Amino acid sequence: MKVVLLGPPGAGKGTQAQRLQETHGLTHLSTGDMLRAEVASGSKIGKEAKSIMERGELVPDAVLISMIAHRITQPDAAKGFLLDGFPRTVAQAEALDRMLSERTQKLDRVIQLVVDNDAMVDRISGRYSCAKCGAGYHDTFRKPKKPDVCDACGSHEFVRRADDKPETVRTRLEAYDRQTAPLLPYYKGRGVLSEVDGMAPIDQVTTRLGKILDAA
Ligand code: AMP
């Protein structure tokens, strides 16, 4: 099964994709994670992407399209995948359609996490994760059980994303409205779009997403 999760930054795409990866045996493909790995490794792509990401703008389509074209041919993608953060423009969506149809494949579902954009600034600007295992936390909504100790692995080291500052979050939300929201009518017209209330509690969102995947 091939699925796209759509929604503005902070909608919960990454959290939900990680859960569905476990429950539905799909490979979670996050272009944000891939780009952050490129930045951390100091590669040519990473050097090009770093300042664009720090400003909260979108990295050029050509970079993302070739990254995904390569990634979906890897063995772990053969069991099906969940795209988180791609496509983000109509050009990327068209390229994805072409890549899949060349392999006589297609997207099974595109699921939009519907959220209140105004609430996303608070959601994102308080988030951080364990530096060792990546478990996600939030200053207000999801604190570790023991202060400063990761629930999952016991580490004391935590990190915040450079682009999770309130002013950058606003730029990222604007980029979503201007460049990514046009994908909603694009996929609606193809009859593959489902909507899920992303403001509901995390477990309820997971249950609803799971039902959509089970029916796909
Ligand atoms: P994310 O982790 O999905 O919020 O992505 C973090 C940042 O990576 C975004 O703000 C963009 O700068 C960049 N990025 C991730 N995916 C894409 C994409 N599909 N197209 C362009 N830029 C992207």
Amount of beta strand = 15-25%
**Which runs of at least 5 residues are low in confidence (pLDDT < 50)?**
none
Provide the residue-averaged pLDDT: 95
Helix tally equals 9
Number of DSSP-assigned strands? 8
N-to-C span: 8 Å
What string gives the helices and strands in order? EHEHHHEHEHEEEHHEH
Overall outline: globular
Name the ligand types: adenosine monophosphate
C-alpha Rg, in Å?
A: 17 Å
Descriptive key words:
alpha/beta, 15% strand, 5-stranded parallel beta sheet, 48% helix, 216 residues
Explain how this protein is built.
The structure is a single chain. The protein has 216 residues and is of the alpha/beta class. It has helices spanning 13-24, 31-41, 44-55, 61-71, 90-102, 117-125, 166-180, 183-189, 202-215; strands at residues 2-6, 27-30, 81-84, 109-114, 127-130, 136-138, 158-159, 193-197. The strands form two sheets. Strands 2-3-1-4-8 form a five-stranded parallel β-sheet. The protein has a three-stranded antiparallel β-sheet with strand order 6-5-7. A hairpin with a 5-residue loop joins β5 and β6. The structure holds adenosine monophosphate.
